[in-house]
Amino acid sequence: LHDTGDTSPALHFNFTRKKILPIGSITSEYFIRLKVKDEPGVLAAVSRICVGNKVSIKAVQQKDADSVANLVIITHLVQEAPLQRAVRQISALKQVLEVSSVIRAGL
Q1: How many whole angstroms separate alpha carbon 66 and alpha carbon 96?
Q2: Reduced to 3 states, what is the DSSP secondary structure of residue 58?
Q3: What's the Rg (C-alpha) of the chain?
């Protein structure tokens, strides 16, 4: 290559201080996977907790295996704080064996 003596102009950045939001204020859809006892009333109990924390359920899927069911819940947009509060309450239910995962699903 031939050096023409030209130089690249200096890169200029305008940095402005941005406010960092608390994690609890992030809004997203969530994917929640639960391992629960396969018995009547489990979905109703989980739904009541969601309602009490203003977590709107978009979709639910349940797959049974013997006396255990894998319950997948997808939420509508919700802030992280009420979602995490609901997950803590759901995990305390005697019918819930495990909260397998909680994943932010929205972009």
Answers
A1: 15
A2: strand
A3: 23
E strand or H helix at 87:
helix 80-91
With cut-offs at 50, 70 and 90, classify the pLDDT of residue 11: low
* b/e per residue 34-61 (b: at least 16 CB within 10 A): bebebeeebbebbeebbeebebebeeee
pTM of the model: 0.78
- Give dist(CA 46, CA 40) in Å, integer: 12
- What's the Cα-to-Cα distance from 23 to each of 8, 26, 71, rounded to whole Å? 40, 6, 26
Query: Where do the domains of the chain lie, and which CATH numbers do they carry?
Result: 23-104 (3.30.70.260)
pLDDT tens-digit series, residues 58-78:
999 999 888 999 999 999 999
User: How far apart are alpha carbons 51 and 53 in whole angstroms?
Assistant: 5
